[in-house]
Amino acid sequence: MAAVAMRLPVARKAVAPSGSRGDEKHLVAPGDTITTDTGYMRGHGTYVDEEKLIASVAGAVERVNKLVCVKALKTRYNGEVGDIVVGRITEVQQKRWKVETNSRLDSVLLLSSMNLPGGELRRRSAEDELAMRDYLQEGDLISAEVQSVFSDGAVSLHTRSLKYGKLGQGVLVQVSPSLVKRQKTHFHDLPCGASVILGNNGFIWIYPTTEQKDEEAGGFTTNLEPVPLSDREVISRLRNCIVALATQKLMLFDTSILYCYEASLSHQIKDILKPEVMEEIVLETRQRLLDLEG
Amino acid sequence: MAAVCLSEAEKLYIVHGVQEDLRVDGRGCEDYRCAEVETDVVSNTSGSARVKLGHTDILVGVKAEMGTPKLEKPDEGYLEFFVDCSANATPEFEGRGGEELGTEIANTLYRVFSSEGSVDLKSLCINPREHCWVLYVDVLLLECGGNLFDAISIAVKAALFNTRIPKVRVLEDEEGSKEIELSDDPYDCIRLNVDDVPCIVTLSKIGYRHVVDATLQEEACSLASLLIAVTSKGALTCMKKIGKGSLDPESIFEMMETGKRVGKALHIALQKILDEEESLGTTRQKVGFLG
Amino acid sequence: MPLDHRRLQGPDESQPPALWAGEGSGPRDPCALRPLFARAGLLSQAEGSAYVELSGGTKVLCAAWGPREAAEPGGGTAGGGGGGGGGRLVCEFRRAPFSSRGARPRPGGAAEREAEREAAAALREALEPAVRLARYPRARLAVSALLLQDGGSALAAAVSAASLALADAGVEMYDLAVGCALCRDPGHPSGAWLLQPGEAEERRAAARLTLALLPALNQVSAVLGGGRGGDPESWGEALRLGLDGCHRLYPVLRQSLLRAVKRRDAAHTPPGS
């Protein structure tokens, strides 16, 4: 019954970079000169010294026309308007909640920028203010959209759509925000039988797919019925697959997750996290993704 | 300890999962996470080991120094434990923040090793009443990812297994004055017999069942855990309830049985890996911190 | 007052010869409990207090303070308890410098402090499940146990005394916590556990165990033990014996608490009514 697996550590090479397709990124370290050409504009992650454009973070250089930015590959989340995020309530304040979104400052969710139960858009009364803890309390998880970014980098969220709101039963996985690929939609009902929300902030929520979307609940009632075992198996497998992909630094999006899930099917769920199995299924996933691209 | 905050629904999900013997990461209730053990990682020590259990990362160094035996036990050496909660593990440990946890773990280790026979202390005696070896066991927490106690006890056992104490001889001249002579050969060492060194198995009560090797999230769902020290023969040498909840007597009996079973499996796996590492000898590629 | 450590000429550690003189305690009934004397509400300034004495010399005095507003709201993790919006329970366990039979330990010595801290943590864990901390948000309850004389089973006595003191302070509790200690005599064949060991028995013991039980709920709130290895069955037997001991001690503690309540009640009702 009891399984105890112990091993000697092995120096592992990261799965060889996909490379070879000419999209090699220009990587810099802080202090590296990016360009001496004065025609460029200074973006995030750079500074100008003696007419040279110098990187201030370690990461990949990105150019948009004349604007040069360096994007750090491992950093906390930098909010951008329109991003989908998953966050955890840390504090209930007057008319707003503080939300932890892996951003450098706590994000805020204003009482006025959410749909109240019932889904209707009505005036916020004093009662609503008093009942804030009934809607969301410390520790609760929400999905939301970035409404605006303040000048100090703090993020303001809104949940003014039925697809956002409080999250019920499921599993949260935290990865580096740069591993989440930007896509049209970050809500996916995967064909394997579970749903994921890929938050741009690197918070990934895996939850059982609900058959009927209860519209009028507005996402404030949580289903406390036990999740059936079959759903749990899918969710656990997905979780381990996402952890495996993130460990091997593969971009996360619906196809990569699904391919990884399929590659993992020959292994037991708990074995996926063993280093050699992780390597094997991630390699297989990558191969399929490359084949897809042709 | 590095506390995680979970919503009620997440906790419920974990509790229901434990009930069905399928935990969030796919493990059953009595499964450990994959552990990596490496000994001899720090060269300035007499013995050292590093254990990674999931995201928990522990480094243990043993230093043998000469001291005077304790008055009550004049013909035995002794062990001293010190646990350092480094701020690397979590910012909460900064300054004196980790002190309380460190003392708690050290006290637990003293209790676990208080049983006579866990380490042959008589072999550490050089010269009754005058000189003995004192083994300073220093535990460093590099990362906390749940189940600290088990990981620490595994690392302590591995480090003690790895410990080599130089051989010394006591020479006595005619006038009765004694001199201690260190062997010239640096490889002339004594090793400790660690067969009876216990390992800790922490059983966390979640819902109506208990799990071993809880992650941080699972620890947040558990109100009370029972910590059991088990030797490789299945004997219990220490028991301690931790956490702010209480336990049913019946579940304690069950936990003791599970602890014994899991503990035995743990010892077998650990001994196997230690022997394997030993048999590789110098051919083994050291990984250390660059793995 | 400054202590002149230089004046101490003796060795750092020493014991009086009396310690080594075995007291001829013959074999005894392993299930026998030492007579326990308890009295609640004897200190005038603390909100609640209790004194527990085990015949044979263990004397513990306990005081409960609070609930008061916690100095640092939210508690943090430093104090251990708290979290979840409930109150915090802070426990202290002190041994009087003259409590043990051996030489007087230097108060505040490192080893002494460690031992006290461990006992305090055990005390807190034993009491926390009994106290309805959720009823005292942002508040702080303090319990201090002072061991006047150690005649064995000290921690167990402290648990009983502390829960009496809390109850005496009018703190909301689910149940009383009753402590009981056991030890395994090395002389006996393995498996012979003695209830409520004396100090000499404790010193000789091959293994020791301290339990705390919430008798009405039948929940074990503290298990702390160690020593020479034994089968789970052997420890299980100890657990059963100890829990039985707790059940037997419970009426005594309950009586003494009710007596204290009655005394107060008498003081409240005008004479003659």
Automatic annotation (TrEMBL), chain A:
It comes from the Eukaryota. GO terms for cellular component: cytoplasmic exosome (RNase complex); nuclear exosome (RNase complex); nucleolus. Keywords: Cytoplasm, Exosome, Nucleus, Phosphoprotein, RNA-binding, rRNA processing. GO terms for molecular function: RNA binding. It is found in: Cytoplasm; Nucleus, Nucleolus. GO terms for biological process: CUT catabolic process; exonucleolytic trimming to generate mature 3'-end of 5.8S rRNA from tricistronic rRNA transcript (SSU-rRNA, 5.8S rRNA, LSU-rRNA); nuclear polyadenylation-dependent rRNA catabolic process; poly(A)-dependent snoRNA 3'-end processing; TRAMP-dependent tRNA surveillance pathway; U4 snRNA 3'-end processing. Residues 80-160 form the S1 motif domain. SMART domains: S1 (SM00316). The keyword Transmembrane helix does not apply. InterPro entries: Exosome_cplx_N_dom, Exosome_RNA_bind1/RRP40/RRP4, KH_dom_type_1, KH_dom_type_1_sf, NA-bd_OB-fold, S1_domain, S1_RRP4. Component of the RNA exosome core complex (Exo-9), composed of EXOSC1, EXOSC2, EXOSC3, EXOSC4, EXOSC5, EXOSC6, EXOSC7, EXOSC8 and EXOSC9; within the complex interacts with EXOSC4 and EXOSC7. The catalytically inactive RNA exosome core complex (Exo-9) associates with the catalytic subunit EXOSC10/RRP6. Exo-9 may associate with DIS3 to form the nucleolar exosome complex, or DIS3L to form the cytoplasmic exosome complex. Exo-9 is formed by a hexameric base ring consisting of the heterodimers EXOSC4-EXOSC9, EXOSC5-EXOSC8 and EXOSC6-EXOSC7, and a cap ring consisting of EXOSC1, EXOSC2 and EXOSC3. Belongs to the RRP4 family. This is Exosome complex component RRP4.
From TrEMBL, chain B:
GO terms for cellular component: cytoplasmic exosome (RNase complex); cytosol; nuclear exosome (RNase complex); nucleolus. This is Exosome component 7. Keywords: Acetylation, Cytoplasm, Exosome, Nucleus, RNA-binding, rRNA processing. One of its GO terms (biological process) is exonucleolytic trimming to generate mature 3'-end of 5.8S rRNA from tricistronic rRNA transcript (SSU-rRNA, 5.8S rRNA, LSU-rRNA). Pfam families: RNase_PH, RNase_PH_C. The keyword Hydrolase does not apply. Component of the RNA exosome core complex (Exo-9), composed of EXOSC1, EXOSC2, EXOSC3, EXOSC4, EXOSC5, EXOSC6, EXOSC7, EXOSC8 and EXOSC9; within the complex interacts with EXOSC2 and EXOSC4. The catalytically inactive RNA exosome core complex (Exo-9) associates with the catalytic subunit EXOSC10/RRP6. Exo-9 may associate with DIS3 to form the nucleolar exosome complex, or DIS3L to form the cytoplasmic exosome complex. Exo-9 is formed by a hexameric base ring consisting of the heterodimers EXOSC4-EXOSC9, EXOSC5-EXOSC8 and EXOSC6-EXOSC7, and a cap ring consisting of EXOSC1, EXOSC2 and EXOSC3. InterPro entries: ExoRNase_PH_dom1, ExoRNase_PH_dom2, ExoRNase_PH_dom2_sf, Exosome_comp_Rrp42_subfam, PNPase/RNase_PH_dom_sf, Ribosomal_Su5_D2-typ_SF. Transmembrane segments: none annotated. The keyword Coiled coil does not apply. It comes from the Eukaryota. The gene is EXOSC7. Its main location: cytoplasm. Residues 32-166, 196-261 form the Exoribonuclease phosphorolytic domain. It is found in: Cytoplasm; Nucleus, Nucleolus. Belongs to the RNase PH family. It comes from Anas platyrhynchos platyrhynchos. GO terms for molecular function: mRNA 3'-UTR AU-rich region binding.
UniProtKB/TrEMBL annotation, chain C:
Residues 33-172 form the Exoribonuclease phosphorolytic domain. Pfam families: RNase_PH. Signal peptide: none annotated. GO terms for biological process: nuclear mRNA surveillance; poly(A)-dependent snoRNA 3'-end processing; rRNA catabolic process; rRNA processing; U4 snRNA 3'-end processing. It is found in: Cytoplasm; Nucleus. Residues 1-10 have a biased composition (Basic and acidic residues). Residues 1-26 are annotated as: Disordered. It comes from the Eukaryota. InterPro entries: ExoRNase_PH_dom1, ExoRNase_PH_dom2_sf, PNPase/RNase_PH_dom_sf, Ribosomal_Su5_D2-typ_SF, RNase_PH. The keyword Nucleus applies. Keywords: Cytoplasm, Exosome, Nucleus, RNA-binding, rRNA processing. GO terms for molecular function: RNA binding. This is Exosome component 6. It comes from Cairina moschata.
